[in-house]
Amino acid sequence: MTSPEHMKAAMAEVPVEDPTRTEYEKLQADEWFRYRAGPELADMQRATLARLRELNGRYYDDPEGSTAGLAALVGECGPGLDYRPPIYLEYRERVRFGRDVFINSNLVIVGSGIVTIGDHALIGPDARFYTVNHAFDVDIRREGWERAFPITLESDVWLGGSVVICPGVTIGRGSVVAAGSVVTKDVPPMSVVAGNPARVIRTL
Q1: Active-site residue 134, yes or no?
Q2: Which of 114, 109, 67, 66 is nearest to 93 (CA)?
């Protein structure tokens, strides 16, 4: 779990060039990195997107094969995955699905932060997971620096349609996020949240 204080402190750090490491190594360490300075990152994304395009198209004739291919593509996946295409991921190895996860159409996961979707989660259509922050300082942002933070859905979470999850957010076990919500901070377990920004409207 990433606390707001930790994320604020991390974003306040000034990026420093380190020519001894690749941008991918910095990405893996959840540090500042420059996407445009690491050609390997673009190559990884293109390979992932090409595979997803194949799997998304294959689903209509072979849903079981397509689903098995998606399960094998991501970093971790438990049994019982059920999804509807299309799905868009940038860094496949940073995505983890638990068991018996259902993903409706048009899931988008952007950025290099680790995304964990827990057991028995229900993901509504057009869900958006945004794990990346760009620098607030204009000059640093122009240089292409970015930093990602994890998003975690604990077990039995239900996201309604068109939900946006922002960097560093954890949604607690059994919680429900109402359709159209923008979740900017952690959600306690067994809660219903709604709105922009999402707020707790009841407990379960």
Answers
A1: yes
A2: 114
